[in-house]
Amino acid sequence: MRALHQAGFKALDSTVICGAGPIGTLTGILLKHCGASRIIVSDIDEARLALCREFGFETVNIREKSVIEYVNETTGGDGVDIVFECSGAESSALDATKLCKIGGTICMTGVHKVPHAMNLQDINFKEQKVVGTRVYTMVEFGQAVEYAKVINADLEKIVSHVVPIEESDKVFAMIADPKINTAKVLVDCQAK
């Protein structure tokens, strides 16, 4: 909810989400239910992109095709209204200004562990807005709870594993293991 509010999202806005992890996928689900005209998701993980396609999102595997090329081809070179950078990757931060239309918004939603460069010339000449997200307000938390009631079936699809609290020490190893296809891992604190 916070990312959509910070970006000034309106129904029928076109969007790109860089990063198909849990944050990017949840952002896409909310955008879909709030009326986005297009949701394009880019990532390097084919399993995560396959899940995004189940939700009806357009996907680009950036190991196979440039997301900038795809967006330029499919928008006539105009770009999209809002780019949600959810990956935390420097390459996506650099791509964001090329994906975003003149007067559009770039919402930095992913966590960047180190400072990254952005194309300030694009931001200036294309009059783009760059906004960050950090936490939610109490109002947004309440809105998220209400949305969760409506989109519960979609939310359940992104939970790949539920682990009892007694086994929570194994969660990070699961996430790091490429043989285990994790989307979102939940720790069940109430399991008996």
Automatic annotation (TrEMBL):
Annotated Alcohol dehydrogenase-like C-terminal domain residues: 22-146
Cross-referenced InterPro entries: ADH-like_C, NAD(P)-bd_dom_sf, Zn_alcohol_dh
Enzyme Commission (EC) number: 1.1.1.103
Keywords for the protein's UniProt record, in alphabetical order: Oxidoreductase
One protein family per Pfam: ADH_zinc_N
GO molecular function: L-threonine 3-dehydrogenase activity
Record protein name field: L-threonine 3-dehydrogenase
